[in-house]
Amino acid sequence: MWNTVLFDLDGTLTDSGEGITRCVQYALRKEFGIKVENLHDLDCFVGPPLKEQFMEFASLSEEEAERAIMAYRERYRTRGIYENRVYDGIPELLSQLVREGLTLAVTSSKPTEFCREILRYFGIEQYFRTVVGSELSGERSKKAEVIEETLRILGMTGRRGEVVLVGDRRFDVEGARKTGIGSIGVSYGYGSRKELETAWPDCITDTPEELRNVLIGQAREEKTESSPVSGNIQTDLPGAYQAGWGSSYPWQGYYGYPEGYYFPPQGYGVPQGINPPQGYYVPQSYPLPGYNYPPQGYYLPQDYRQVRNFDPQSPYKMPPYGYLAETPRTPCRKQESLIYKIWRCLNPLLIDLAVAFVVTNFSLFLFMMFAGNPAGGNRLYEGNSLLILGLTDLIGIVIYSLLFRADERGRIMDGLPERMLRFGHISFLYIPALILFVPAVSALISSLVSTLPIFPNDIYSALEDSIMSSGWLLQLIVVCVTGPIAEELLYRGLIYRRVRDYTGCAWAAVISGVIFGIAHGNLYQGVYAAIFGILMALIYEHFGTIWMAILGHVVNNLVATFLDPLISGMGAMGQTVYLASSAVAAILLGIVIFSKKNRINAV
To answer: Is 8 an active-site residue?
Structure first.
């Protein structure tokens, strides 16, 4: 009897063809200029190891295949992984198999972290005892190697006759044969029935319903013939808990049985007379390979991550995050207070102020030590203010990058796909279009601000003089490179994204833009910066990557630093012509960049 079922992922549990083929198309075009217009020509990549398939399909060397995989994962991590769907009937199939007492696992050539994310995203991870895939380093990429690791984790290496692999390609069947386990081919995936027939699996099924009938039918037949339930707990379940089962008796192999530990179906009793609602008590000795074990006395409710639904008066403790849940969990939507939301959105500013405070005071201290007196130290400090600003930006870039990556991982782990920004396709033409668009809009914003009854103050003028008196190389590095990167990571990557988690795109763009303007410290520059910050947020939202906002900011500062002084000397007529051409360019390029057909996120 097959009591352990190993499922392939792509083409068996989920229809992942679109995401995989689009990422392959992207990788081939980016790295080697190979254009494949028909995605169905790339269906051969669904299932087999990527490296071998790249080498076979495009006649790439091993090194070139590695480059292709890196480009493939570049798109797959942010977008391709979600271009996916669960086949109809699969969640019901998995639920029924678990209720029948079968042990389930996922065995895929896809990297393990991607497998887990897909299962979590679709809410079916809880059905599997373990999930085993390849390593991102390229190790364990062959199907037979992945199967062997799965058998080792499940403790089934000596009981291979009880294990069957379910897959849609001949590679799955061949891997099962090499490891001495059974195989079932499913023809609804990416391998045709003809392909499966040439590989000779134990049987072929055409739908998830047929697969269910095969697996459950053979399991029930074996139970009926070998160990029918008599109704006596002590006879049927040696070693099982002998209290609290109520009137429903589980089949042999269920809870506490030494030769197989399975989740009892809903409605069965639980040990020691405990009667928790919609969940099962799991003792410390419950064997769950690959998962953390909740300590004895812990109780796993149906949605254990929904802390708000857990009764604090319950005598059973809530296991910490990361412990195994027995039933599907819902996304973790924290019941955050308004104060916490404000704190989360604004604390990056406090980090920025702390970095600036430490760098500024430490630099001033060093200058005083070098000059030998406070007055000389202050003069040195004023003469090197741009250098100190660049050092502050460099430290900030490191900190903000770490926080930005942690935020993105947190959104994925919380299972909130609607909070993620999808990475839009960026053609070669978008980059020069953006390079022309941002300075054009910036010129219009600057012209608008100059008509308002606000004027540069002494602080702004002193700052501008200090920047212009520095060498052109230092201006290029600090004003045009490190400054834009630090500001975009802080104000768009952290503040805008966090505000967007709670309010959506429009309000987040306005709020983060206003904060960006206030941070500039004077009204004249602040109004310009606020409008410009909103523009950068919209660019980030549209393309789905912070790098496009950074590019726009870098280009804008380059023009403002090195080109604006030339434009200012063109006279009234020249400036009018420049503004008019900027307005036309902004409109035309804006239509190209933000056209509805290119829309990926909210903009």
So the answer is: yes
